[in-house]
UniProtKB/TrEMBL annotation:
Belongs to the FGGY kinase family. This is Carbohydrate kinase FGGY N-terminal domain-containing protein. It comes from the Eukaryota. SUPFAM superfamilies: Actin-like ATPase domain. It comes from Acanthoscelides obtectus (Bean weevil).
Length: 342
């Protein structure tokens, strides 16, 4: 009998799920839905936040739309998502940040809003250049930027310390989803996601805890880090017909997963045009330094195994694509055709 894997991608604008036949490597079923989760930011146009409750509700809905007879045969779950953003939550001995609701011999997960922050996404620009210049230099080959998890946490520590004290866990949105599915007390984060937060030494595979502690950073919120591709835990209950105990992989970076699913030869490069845009290729035998980071148009992020990917990213938040669309609309108007404006 064929066995299947469930793939989950929690992106910037939508949730995508698919069931892959392990015998043929073909996608047997899939579903995609926009999360419509963007909410106004307390910092105005410079901030970018999303409602985690809406994201998880969309995840539940997408999985529920897949055929039950295939879900019953799922033997592993893989999760990836937007890499740089951060969400905070509170777990303790009496209550977690989610509810496990049983119905008709299966379960669903609901977020407890008062125990979970909004998702501060990679598009968040509250950390301006002056603020970033005051931060300590990372012991890493990768620099820090606005929208990176550790930069956002530095900003929260300075400007909203009381809000930060409400929580004892943090992670990317995929880390939160994995912790929820496995009903974990503390999250696990992959090397891929940790590198995307800043202040992670890829050479030693450790957070820059000493540097961060000296800067009064809340290091207690940083998750434990594990090998990309490792199993984080097992499903806490029968979730939309997927059997309880099904292994769930540690959360992965959506960029790395897009490369993994696209390259066919070691000489291939991947051009990804989505909310941002990147051109990427896999590098063998890259050795990251312990910093300080050097200015470069190309960054190297952890991939799978001991490999890295070289990434040239515009990090434009979709602005370049939006400008291109508006240009086409203007040309069309000048030619005498009426095109709706975005």
């Amino acid at each position: 009998m064929a066995k299947y894997n469930l793939g989950i991608d929690i992106g910037t604008t939508s949730v995508k799920v698919c069931i892959v036949n392990l015998s043929t490597n073909e996608v047997e079923a899939q579903h995609v839905k926009d999360t419509q989760s963007n909410i106004p930011s307390d910092t105005g146009h410079s901030g970018n936040k999303q409602d985690v409750f809406k994201i998880i509700s969309t995840l539940n809905l997408c999985v529920s739309k897949l055929p039950k007879h295939l879900l019953q045969e799922v033997e592993a779950i893989g999760v990836c998502g937007q890499m740089h953003g951060v969400v905070f939550w509170k777990n303790d001995a009496t209550q977690k940040a989610w509810e496990i609701i049983e119905k008709d011999t299966t379960i669903r997960y609901d977020v407890v809003p008062e125990r979970v922050s909004n998702l501060y996404t990679w598009q968040d620009n509250r950390c301006d250049s002056a603020f970033l210049d005051r931060l300590p230099k990372p012991q890493s080959h990768l620099n820090i930027a606005s929208g990176f998890g550790c930069a956002t946490m530095f900003w929260m520590k300075k400007h909203k310390p009381e809000k930060l004290k409400k929580y004892n866990c943090s992670g990317t949105i995929s880390d939160f989803a994995v912790a929820m599915l496995c009903n974990m007390n503390k999250p696990m984060m992959s090397y891929q996601n940790a590198a995307s937060w800043g202040y992670f030494n890829c050479a030693t595979k450790q957070w820059n805890k000493e540097v961060l502690q000296q800067a009064d950073f809340p290091v207690n919120l940083l998750p434990e880090v594990g090998q990309s591709g490792a199993i984080a835990g097992s499903l806490a209950g029968d979730w939309h017909s997927i059997p309880k105990g099904t292994p769930v992989g540690i959360g992965l970076g959506d960029l790395q997963c897009s490369v993994l699913s696209t390259v066919e030869r070691s000489t291939d490069a991947v051009l990804n045009i989505s909310t941002s845009a990147q051109i990427t290729f896999v590098v063998d035998q890259y050795q990251p330094s312990s910093g300080p980071p050097k200015a470069s148009a190309v960054d190297h992020f952890p991939y799978f195994g001991h490999q890295y990917i070289a990434v040239a990213a515009s990090l434009n938040g979709g602005n370049a694509l939006a400008t291109f669309v508006k240009m086409l609309q203007q040309w069309t108007l000048e030619l005498g055709f009426n095109v709706p404006q975005c």
